[in-house]
């Protein structure tokens, strides 16, 4: 069984088959990172189908459920010890006007598995809620997620709200999701963008000084 077969099973919403494939792959010592990469590629396909009107909200919800089951299977391998050393704090959320959380959930899990204390604010999060979370949780990193293009304005507004609150220079801000690129990063005023969960973790580690 190949990673390509897993990608196809997830993308086609074959829930039981996909979950069993992951169990079998783990039994054959396939690296969790490779499985997560296959999940990410499948989610990209699902996102494209949603954008084209092939899939709708129920499919996105089902995709999230499939991903959650897969993450539960992978957890024991990714998190070898229950006593994980925490390197730093990250506040993350999907910005106002966007309810997509599949990518955000993968990033949240990966950050947690790599030793970060993560406060996930959920979806459709207004700028003031990010400001409040930064004040109270005092993270070193803020992650803004958005799948829709309208999220770019919300990301910009959130960063501007952090500036007005006098908190912008206390945190590093990364953005991700959908068609985020360097132009979007510049537009929003973020410090960097991550093309996937692995890149997001690498950015957080770099900013906090973890090798």
Q: Note the run of SSEs as H and E.
A: HHHHEHEHEHEHEH
Q: Strands across the major sheet, in which order?
A: 2-1-3-4-5
Structural category is alpha/beta
Unreliable spans are: none
| Helix percentage range | 55-70%
Structural notes for this entry:
The protein is an alpha/beta fold and 211 residues long. It has 2 domains: 3-78, Methionine synthase domain (Methyltransferase, Methionine Synthase (B12-binding Domains), Chain A, domain 1, Orthogonal Bundle), CATH 1.10.1240; 88-208, 3-Layer(aba) Sandwich (Rossmann fold). 57% of the residues lie in helices and 12% in strands. Helix 5 (102-113) links the parallel strand 1 (88-94) and strand 2 (116-120).
List its salient traits.
211 residues; Methyltransferase, Methionine Synthase (B12-binding Domains), Chain A, domain 1; 57% helix; globular
Helix and strand layout, with pairings?
Elements: H1 3-11, H2 15-27, H3 32-51, H4 57-78, E1 88-94, H5 102-113, E2 116-120, H6 127-137, E3 141-145, H7 151-164, E4 172-176, H8 182-188, E5 192-194, H9 197-208
Parallel strand pairs: 1-2, 1-3, 3-4, 4-5
Helix pairs in contact: 1-2, 1-3, 2-4, 3-4, 4-5, 5-9, 6-7
Task: Provide a brief overview of the structure.
This protein has 2 domains: 3-78, Methionine synthase domain (Methyltransferase, Methionine Synthase (B12-binding Domains), Chain A, domain 1), CATH 1.10.1240; 88-208, Cobalamin-binding domain (Rossmann fold, 3-Layer(aba) Sandwich), CATH 3.40.50.
């Amino acid at each position: 069984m190949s990673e390509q077969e897993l990608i196809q099973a997830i993308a086609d919403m074959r829930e039981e088959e996909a979950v069993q494939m992951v169990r079998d792959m783990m039994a054959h010592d396939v690296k969790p990172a490779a499985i997560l990469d296959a999940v990410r590629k499948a989610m990209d396909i699902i996102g494209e189908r949603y954008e084209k009107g092939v899939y709708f909200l129920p499919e996105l919800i089902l995709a999230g459920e499939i991903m959650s089951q897969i993450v539960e299977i992978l957890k024991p391998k990714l998190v070898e010890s229950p006593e994980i050393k925490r390197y730093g704090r990250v506040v993350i959320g999907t910005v106002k006007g966007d309810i997509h959380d599949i990518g955000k959930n993968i990033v949240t899990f990966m950050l947690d598995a790599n030793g970060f204390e993560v406060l996930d604010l959920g979806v459709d999060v207004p700028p003031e809620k990010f400001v409040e979370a930064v004040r109270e949780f005092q993270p070193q990193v803020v992650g803004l997620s958005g799948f829709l293009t309208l999220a770019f304005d919300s990301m910009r507004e959130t960063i501007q709200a952090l500036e007005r609150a006098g908190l912008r220079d206390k945190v590093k801000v990364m953005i991700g999701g959908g068609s985020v690129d360097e132009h979007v990063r510049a537009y929003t005023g973020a410090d960097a963008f991550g093309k996937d969960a692995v890149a997001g973790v690498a950015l957080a580690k770099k900013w906090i000084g973890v090798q």
